[in-house]
Amino acid sequence: MKLKSKRFAATASVAFLALAGAACSKKVASAPPPAPPAAAPATSTPARSQPVATSRPATSTPAPSTPASRYPDAATRARIDQLLARISDAYFDYDKSSLRPDAISTLRADAVELRDIVKQYPDYKMQIEGYCDERGSAEYNLALGDRRAQSAKDYLVDVGIPNAQLSVISYGKERPVCEDHTENCWQKNRRIHIIALAQNR
Q1: What is the per-residue pLDDT across 3-14, written as a single tens digit (0 to 9) for each?
Q2: Model-level pTM greater than 0.85?
Q3: Where are the domains of the chain?
Q4: Which backbone phi and psi does 128 adopt, to 5 degrees?
């Protein structure tokens, strides 16, 4: 009888422990989960200002410009020819190569406009021809004609016509414009004359 009561007590103890464990597990399972910790307030950091994008103008490579012509076109050459025609022959005294006042006036008449045109065209060349009357030797008159042409060139260079665009040549007593043997005719042959040179191609 005692053995039965011991077994009953043991069985009852086991059953009680099982019930107690189940009750505890239910209580644990039904317990709500702990609330999450409160988030710390975010410290507001000042927004960094974004650099303003400066728009640079698009750099475009300029198209190569057509080089300016170093020789005048037909219309400009025609204007130069008009000016040279108006710069009539400048005359000299007998056996002299210095420019007379009337010769200076002749050269000055259109030299400034001529200068302003030809300076733009370095390849445009002019030649100053020197002449003499029939008196004296051929050699002497060639030298005298050269001095006369050089005097006219010096004046035109002083006006502003580039030295490199002017050349001189002497024909002495050759190529006279008048062949009478008079002072009036000889005066016409003591002169300089300016021509345009053909372009070298």
Answers
A1: 455 555 555 555
A2: no
A3: 94-196
A4: -105, 120
